[in-house]
Amino acid sequence: MEEKLQPGSFVLGPQDLTVGPAVQPYPRSPKLLRKTAHSSIPLTQEQLSKHLEQLKAEEARTEAHLQSLKKRRSNLSKSVEVMKQKVKERFDVMRAALQRDERAVRDSLELDRRETTAKLNQVLKDWQQHLSAVQRSIRCTGNALAQKSGVVNSTDPIEEVSCHKKPDAAEASIRLNEERFQNLLRKLQQISRDLQAQLKRKTFLLDSSNVVIDRETSHTQIAITGEGRSLCISSEACDPQRQLHPLQFDQVYCALATSAITTGQHYWEVDVRCCSAWAVGVTYGSLHRKGQDKSAKLGRNRMSWCVELRDGRLSAWHNDRHVAPTGIRGRDQPATVGVHVNYEKGRVVFYDADGMELLQEFSAALTPVFDRMHHQFVDPLYPAVRFLRPQDGFARSSHMEIPDLQN
User: Fold this and answer.
1) Strand partners, 213
2) In three state form, how does the secondary structure of 227-262 look?
3) What residues does the B30.2/SPRY domain cover (predicted)?
4) Other C-beta atoms within 10 Å of 359: how many?
5) Mean pLDDT over the full length of the chain
């Protein structure tokens, strides 16, 4: 070894500088080696022809698909224009109806003015004639006084004119019907509010959800009928032989919908006019189902949001904190509660659906009293309702209905 390692023992000759095959730094994979070997094999005439046919077929398919996409784009524009025209026609019909009604109301007011003016003109004519008679009598009386004799003939006109004409009692009633006009303004104001509410509700109805109550997980004493949209408290609904579902409420009279909300905007309504004590809201599926502590009650935990009516008072709840709903202003309790959820924005809004008046909005921006971090929804949401037990027990008015807004 020492001899081999002596200085000068390594001498590079010209043959050592000959360029050999390239050495790969890492071994190639078998798949790559097979692909390289396959690509190095020259194709036959038949294979080239077949490959050319495949390329032409692919070209034809691609061109056909492009034409289909272009046609869809063109049809999309045409469809939107057709929809715009139909929307315009619907609004034109409403505008025409409003314009016809406006003309009818204005014509009615004009007719009232003309009739009142005609009556006043007749009264003015009578008083004008009386004034003319009085003035003639004044002239005759003045002429008589100017005569030296001062004798007035018995045929003098002054004897034919009353010195005092009393207004007719009917004159006071000759006026525009102000009470009718004020009633008209009140009706128009109510119609305007109703129209604005319906237009607002129309926007929400485009996002209406098909809410059906889950029979398996609702409390056993809640009777569910009408394709899962009608709920009521009934002792007959409790079946002692029925096997309890693991996710069934056993103490709290609560029910959840079958479908969850995971994205987008959704709207539904709950008719509560036949229920004296209730809660309407949304919850995560992780809401506890067993027991009757706060973790199983709507609004009493971080997992749920609701508005509720108890003992005639309306309140909004989340994370066991409550506020008076912002929109009630001393009004009667709502007959129908509308619920709108914007999942991406972490917002749930409750409305009095009859007038689309805001009851309460839960969001990080508008309700800082609530926990902000839980206004970014992190789990699927379920529409939920709860029958509240009054102090004197459930009354006969313990019924809720979920209208089908998609028909």
Assistant:
1) 257
2) CCCEEEECHHHCCCCCCCCCCCCCCCCEEEECCCEC
3) 191-404
4) 21
5) 82
**CATH number for the domain running over 222-401:** 2.60.120.920
Residues 251-308 have pLDDT tens digits of: 999 999 999 999 999 999 999 999 989 999 999 999 999 999 999 999 999 999 999 9
- What pLDDT is recorded for position 246? 86
Integer angstrom CA distances of residue 314 from 254, 310, 350, 390: 18, 7, 12, 14
Grade residue 110 by pLDDT with cuts at 50, 70 and 90: very high
Predicted confidence at residue 141, as pLDDT, reads 80
Q: How far from 216 is each of 180, 223, 247, CA to CA, in Å?
A: 57, 11, 8
- CB-neighbour burial class of residue 403 (10 A; exposed 0-12, middle 13-18, buried 19+): middle
Backbone angles phi, psi at 154, to 5 degrees: -65, -20
Q: At 133, is the secondary structure helix, strand, or coil?
A: helix
- Over residues 1-13, the pLDDT tens digits come to 444 444 444 444 4
State the DSSP code for 405. Answer: T
Distance of CA 288 to the CA centre of its chain: 30
Annotated domain spans of the chain: 46-164+172-176, 222-401
CB atoms within 10 A of CB 232: 20
Mean pLDDT to the nearest integer, 207-233 = 91
Q: Tokens in use for 344?
A: 């991406």
CA distance 67 to 199: 40
DSSP one-letter string for 262-318 = -SSEEEEEEE-TTBSSEEEEEEETTS--SSSSGGGSTTSSTTEEEEEEETTEEEEEE
Asked if residue 81 lies in contact with residue 89, where contact means CB atoms within 8 angstroms, the answer is no
**Residue 340: which of 314, 325, 324, 359 has the closest Cα?**
359
Give the DSSP per-residue string, 328-381: -TT-PPPSEEEEEEETTTTEEEEEETTTTEEEEEE-TTT-TTS-GGGGS--S-E
Confidence band for 137, pLDDT divided at 50, 70 and 90: confident
Residue 186, amino acid: R
175 CB-near residues (< 8 Å, 6+ apart) = 116
